[in-house]
Amino acid sequence: MHSEVVPSRSAEQRDSRESRSGSGSPHLDAVSLAIIEQLQEDGRRPYAAIGKAVGLSEAAVRQRVQKLLDQGVMQIVAVTDPLTVGFRRQAMVGINVEGDTESVADALTGMSEVEYVVMTAGSFDILAEIVCEDDDQLLDVINKRIRALPGVRSTESFVYLKLKKQTYMWGTR
Fold first, then answer.
1. Average pLDDT value for the chain
2. Is residue 145 within 8 Å of 72, Cβ to Cβ?
3. To bridge 56 with a disulfide, which of 3, 43, 60, 100 should be the other Cys (CB 3.0-4.6 Å)?
4. Is 103 helix (H, G, I), strand (E, B) or coil?
5. At residue 73, what are phi and psi to the nearest 5 degrees?
6. Distance, CA of 126 to CA of 18 (rounded, Å)
7. Residue 9 — φ and ψ, nearest 5°?
8. Which is more confidently placed, 77 or 167?
9. Could you tell me how far CA 157 lies from the centroid of its own chain?
């Protein structure tokens, strides 16, 4: 298990960010970006060490990190290997929708087994990553819950056989 900074997935945080700023995302200066990069390298890095790297005091770094968290710019979380914590089945589910794609995406975000929801252009309207304890739970989620959502026309499941890479180290560009 390791700790990484990941982008916020909370719709409420995203919506509040968008309402505070006209463009949908807060302005991040070079120092805030450098702090994020420091935390992406090690989410447990001490504020004093980050301050030394970015030229701020420990207190100033603590304040900036809290602001980034409050704005929903990032989260600091433990990222696990699902297999090691009892989740034996993962799948990406491609979903085609008739009508309002956003309402289906919103319903998916409320499902505890759904870890990732993306509205897309291409073969599918939505991609949803599902993490389950076993095949029976995965079947239940897809068959009885996702396919039962109003507007879902079809699904295609891509069951993960082996997780080779899971990282959130894309930096801040």
1. 86
2. no
3. 60
4. helix
5. -70, -35
6. 22
7. -110, 5
8. 77
9. 20
Strands (E), 27-166: 75-79, 89-97, 114-119, 126-132, 152-159
Can you list the positions of beta strands (E) in 1-151? 2-6, 75-79, 89-97, 114-119, 126-132
Alpha-carbon distances of 3 from 79, 81, 172, rounded to whole Å:
6, 12, 17
Phi, psi of 162 (to 5 degrees): -155, 130
Q: Which residue has the higher pLDDT, 16 or 59?
A: 59
Q: What is the DSSP letter of 144?
A: I
CA dihedral 95, 12, 18, 8 (to 10 degrees): -70
pLDDT grade for 83, boundaries at 50, 70 and 90 = confident
Q: How far apart are CA 170 and CA 173, in angstroms?
A: 8
Q: Determine what percent of the chain falls in helix, strand and coil, rounding each to the nearest 5.
A: 40, 25, 40
Tell me the pairing of strands 126-132 and 114-119.
antiparallel
Encoded tokens for 42: 């090690």
Residues 100-148: pLDDT tens digits? 999 999 999 999 999 999 999 999 999 999 999 999 999 999 999 999 9
